[in-house]
Every structure is written in C-alpha cells, then in structure tokens.
Amino acid sequence: MRNYPGKYLAFRSWVMVRLALVSMALCLFLRRDAFLYAENVSVIPQVAFIDSQIESAWADANIQPAEEAVDLEWCRRVYLDLVGRIPTVDEVLEYKNASSRNKRSVLVDRLLGEGYTKEYAKHWANVWTTILVGRDTDNRMVDRDGLRKYLQASWEANIPYDQFVEELLTATGENATREGATSFNGATNFLSGKLADGGLQATAKTAQIFLGMQVQCSQCHNHPFNSGVKQNQFWELNAFFRQARALRRFDGGRQVAWIELVDEDFAGQGGDPDEAEIFYELRNGLVKVAYPVFVDGTEIPRSGLLPGVLDDGTTYGVNRRRELASLIQSNPLFPKAVVNRLWAYFLGYGFTTPIDDFGSHNLPTHPALLDGLAQRFADYSYDLKSLMRWIVLSKPYGLTSRMKAESTKDAPDSGEQPHFSRFYVRQMQPEQLYNSLLVATKADRSGSAERQDRWLSQFIIAFGTDEGDSSTTFNGTIPQILMLFNGDLIEAATSLDQDGFLDQIVAANRTNRDKINALYLAALARWPSMSELRYANHLLLARKGEVREALQDVWWALLNSNEFILNH
C-alpha cells in the first residue's frame, strides 16, 4: 500500500466531508410544519376579486389547488418578496407567536409601513434598476448609483406609478451623484444610455417596459408575429425621442464622468423644424417619412421646436417627450403592463409569456383578471403598495409549493398555461440571496452598493441583442457553484472568528440540539426534523465531539441547500 503524507490524508478527509455536505445541501428541501394556518382575514374587495377569478379558472380547468402554505413558509416568502431578504430569527418568532387572526395582513402592512421603508425602498430600487437599465455595469452612459438613489427616494415616498413613469420619460439634468453637481437627476439614467443611434433603444425599451409591447423587431419590417405592430409605428414612436440628447461630460481625459440629458430643437432630417421628419427604409429600398404618432394612431404637432412664445404672444412648438408620457399614461396597456410584471414577480409567471409582449399572438391566460386588476390599480391612483398588498394576500400567493399528484397538469415550466394552483418554486434573485446571507449570519447589512455589484457580477449573463440585454441568474456553471460553495461571502458567513454569528451560537450555554435548532431557524425559518437532527448528530460523532467544526459543517450545508437558495 502506498504511503500518503499526513497532509494529503487530511485533505482527502476534508474533501470527503465536503462532498457529503454538498449532498446534504442538495437534498435539503422544503420540509413542512405539521399544521396549516387558516386565517380569517377581513375581506378586501380587490383580493376577493383575484380569488374569485382564479377559483373560477380552476373550476373550468378541473384543477384542485394545493393546500395553503404553512405559517412560517408564507412568512419567509413574503419577507423575500416585499423587502428582498429572509426574516431574522426574531422576526420569525414574532410572527409565529402573534395571536391576531389577521396576522398575515398585519405582517404585510408592517412590511409596507414605516418600520421597513428603507429596506423596502432599497429592495425595489434594485428590482427596478434591473428593469430599467439591465445588468450591464460597464455602461459609461449610465450611473447606477445615481439611478438607485433616485429609485430609492421614489419608493420611500411611494410616488404613484404614473408619476414615476412620467419622471423617467421627461427627465433632464445630470445623471451622476458627484460632488458639485448642481442639477443631479437620477431619473435621467433611464434614457441616458439609450439615445445613441437615434434613440433606437429608447424606443424599444419604453414600449416594452411601460406598454408591454415588443416593437424592436419592427425597425426593418412589420412584426413577424404581432399583426398589430407595423414598421411605421416603430419609427413614429421613435420620433418622440428626437429632441432629446445625452451630452457626455469628461473628467479631463477620455473617461466619461457624467451625462447631461437635455432637450433641444430638432430640425428634422430634412432641415425644416416645422416638419421635423425622420426617414426610414422599407425592405424593398423605398424610403418613407415618419412623424410623431403614438401606437394607437394619436398624432401630435409635427414641430421639432421646443415650446416657446413669439414677440406677438403666439405660442409655438411642442415637447415631444412630455406628449409621449401623457399618451402612455392614458393608454389601457399602461396599467396592464405593470400589473402583469408584478404578478409575474410575486407568482413566478405572468398572464403572458413573455410578460412584455402583449398582442393577438400572445393572449393573456386570465384576461378578465388582468383587465380588472389593471382597472382597480388605476382607480387606486396607481398606488404600487396597494397592488402588492392585494397580490400577496390573495389565495394563489398563499398556497404551498408542494405539488399534488393530480396537479401535474399545472406545469408552466413545461410550456403549459399557468393556472396558479400552487406556488411556483423559483430561485432567489441574486440580490435577495446576497441580502439573505447577510441577514442569516447577522453580518453588516449596510454593505456598499459597490460590494453588492461586485458579488452580483459573477452571475451576469449578457445576450448579444440590439437592446444590450443582460440578466443575472444562476445557470449552474462550475464557477458559480464554486463561488456559492466556497466564495468569500460563504467563507465569511461560516467563519468561526471570535464574536461572529457562528461563534456566538457555539459559545452559547445551550444544548447541542438547541444550537442546531438555532441554525435551522436562522437559515430556513423553521426547526429541523427528527431525521435532520439525527444527521447532525452523526456529524458530531464523525467530528469526534468537535462541536465547533460539526456545527460549522451543518451551517455550511444549510446555506448551500436548495431550501435556502430557493423562494418557495
């Protein structure tokens, strides 16, 4: 037999332990508490409307919904979705011990109330930063910190959604947070990186995000699938952005320091500001002329001059972006687009797939629910918190993610129509995972946005499209897995350094069982099952009574488990 050095044997043993722990991490998933919690919540008309529409669809499809999610399962879910992190141990225990029969609605009101304003705003600033400018952190025309600052302030103030969109579409000023800035306006970051090449990206993303229409395919020809989107409509929408310019300001060298977004008179490609036309080419080579006309056929004055007054008092000109904002706000697709987006955020799937492609080619699965919820959202002055509250208190959001044998027909991950008869398991967004790791380990939650972006950059996947699309996701690559298992954040989270989270658990004057319970509660918002306790005891035995190392192994496995990483 070959003699191996002691260090190699120790390393081999370490590898074996880690492999066992990885196996444990992959197998840990969704143990349920023994009881269901049925809440006698006061009837909210909008919630009742959602429930009645969904239940009617279940009946039509002959689908039996899953059981209601257990108490702590729902608690963890709503913390993740509303404030972007798992609950702390104290928050879990507070919710579990609450005696109110309306405890779910009470918790939702708390998370949407003053006590969580900062966390709520920070989370939704992250969500909308991704929606508005994607994941590209190298775009020098966009100041992500400036955008987040604006978004966080907007969400703290809970400004109405229609006002929010108007501010984005009409913004002028400097896009960067910098010393000496006199006209900083973080809202300018939505368009600052999209006005190159005649504002093609501005046109495509405005229609996609705020109207749920994908018009980018119609730059060169009529939309191949959506008969309602013609080539002329793209260029007529594009004309609304031709008065806007993104002016680069440099730091003394070649580095762009900030962008100033301004409105200027547009003379048109023919040189006459009274016409202010643009030209586009058909596939047959014929050149056509476009003026600002909204997608519903509404025309505005052709003038490319900004509003002004002549010496004789005669007014002239028009601000095309302001006209566009008004037309978008009055269009019936406007509330539908954000309702569909938020429904998909909370329930895993929208009423259409993709969520930003309305049309005769992509009809909604629940048209009456989409229309009715959009109308109620508009009637509530476009209050986003109200819309969120209705969705998270609805019956489909409150169901367990455990699939019944008879519910196999509700399988949207296989391309079938979603019926929302169970909660669809999905991976945490990387921002949620990052913040949840900080919460679970009681680490500093005031970490800089730069540190967060650096960590998130490991998940960025870029798509080589004309719109510069990118996303941040887990796609199972070896570097991502290794980063999750052994990266700096996990290493810090599982450290036994003095006064750290794990050190405090180990040093506590409690039984080993209590210490294991504390780890499960901190990571998974539940207590371990008897089989999980037995497995932990086996680790104690394998470590020959070295409690610190055994608990560290358990903690590492929990933080890398499916159950921790998934929103379920």
* Record field, number of beta strands: 11
Query: What percentage of residues falls in helices of 4 or more residues?
Result: 40-55%
Biggest sheet descriptor: 3 strands, antiparallel
Radius of gyration: 27 Å
Strand content: 5-15%
**Overall mean pLDDT:** 85
In order across it, which strands form the biggest sheet? Answer: 1-3-2
What's the helix count?
A: 24
Parts with pLDDT < 50 across at least 5 consecutive residues:
1-19, 22-41, 462-472
Provide the structure class. mainly alpha
**Distance between termini?**
50 Å
Record the SSE blueprint:
Blueprint: H1 6-27, H2 45-61, H3 71-83, H4 89-97, H5 103-111, H6 117-133, H7 144-157, H8 161-170, E1 173-174, H9 189-192, H10 196-211, H11 231-238, E2 244-250, E3 256-263, E4 278-281, E5 287-290, E6 308-309, E7 315-316, H12 320-329, H13 333-347, H14 367-379, H15 384-392, E8 426-427, H16 430-440, H17 449-456, E9 460-462, E10 470-472, H18 478-486, H19 488-493, H20 501-507, H21 512-524, H22 530-542, H23 547-559, H24 562-565, E11 566-567
Antiparallel strand pairs: 1-3, 2-3, 4-5, 6-7, 8-11, 9-10
Helix pairs in contact: 1-23, 2-14, 3-5, 6-7, 8-12, 10-11, 13-14, 13-15, 21-23, 22-23
What this model shows, in words?
This protein is 48% helix and 7% strand. The protein contains 24 helices and eleven strands. It has helices spanning 6-27, 45-61, 71-83, 89-97, 103-111, 117-133, 144-157, 161-170, 189-192, 196-211, 231-238, 320-329, 333-347, 367-379, 384-392, 430-440, 449-456, 478-486, 488-493, 501-507, 512-524, 530-542, 547-559, 562-565; strands at 173-174, 244-250, 256-263, 278-281, 287-290, 308-309, 315-316, 426-427, 460-462, 470-472, 566-567. A three-stranded antiparallel β-sheet has the order 1-3-2. A two-stranded antiparallel ribbon has the order 4-5. It is globular. The two termini are 50 Å apart. Residues 1-19, 22-41 and 462-472 have low confidence and may be disordered.
